[in-house]
Specification:
The chain contains four helices and twelve strands; from the N terminus they run H-E-H-E-E-E-E-E-E-E-E-E-E-E-H-H. It has about 190 residues and is mainly beta.
Length: about 190
């Protein structure tokens, strides 16, 4: 037997990709305590909390308009299924939370769709779940958006990628205004 045959089976990990946007991010830096572009492991039995209180919340938002604990995410496995999901719960008494167009009041919770937009106040978070098999932990991968995710994501979600391997949607957000081209230009 080779070492490859004796190696343990590699387990895939469920990863929650979250892209954050706020119109005043450049001036107020409310996301400065978040760890962007690096995957972070969270134990499956932990509740991932988002909010202003760094003693309680794993993901800290530096903004006095954010509740001490704004919302939480709980990783779980559906009953009689091998499917893993996230549940989102609004923990703010003052601010309603919307998930896609579903409004959640204080202590309301729902299953997080595999791809959705979470909003509260001026905050917009695109959440996308990448499925995995691990039962011990999940990962979060945070990203910072330069443009509102509500506008940016109004495009169809599964656009075909041309043979060049470069998706045209990558370039749509770079320019703020459309540019005119002469059809005879190369």
């Amino acid at each position: 037997m080779t070492s490859l045959e004796e190696a343990e089976t590699e387990e895939t990990v469920t990863c929650l990709h979250m892209t954050f946007y706020h119109p005043c991010q450049e001036e107020k830096m409310m996301f400065r305590c978040l760890n962007f572009c690096k995957r972070e492991q969270v134990r499956a039995d932990e509740m991932a909390k988002f909010g202003r209180d760094s003693n309680v919340c794993r993901y800290n938002l530096v903004d006095t308009r954010v509740s001490r604990v704004q919302f939480s995410l709980q990783f779980y496995r559906k009953l009689h299924s091998s499917e893993y999901c996230f549940e989102i719960k609004n923990l703010s008494k003052r601010t309603k939370l919307t998930v896609n167009q579903t409004e959640l009041g204080y202590l309301n919770k729902i299953d997080l769709p595999w791809r959705c937009i979470i909003c509260f106040g001026d905050y917009q978070i695109l959440a996308e779940t990448q499925e995995g098999e691990s039962v011990d932990y999940f990962e979060t991968h945070l990203h910072l958006a330069e443009a509102p995710v509500l506008q940016e994501r109004s495009l169809p979600s599964l656009q075909p990628i041309p043979e060049s391997g470069v998706s045209s949607s990558i370039f749509l957000c770079r320019d703020k205004s459309p540019t005119e081209m002469d059809e005879n230009e190369p």
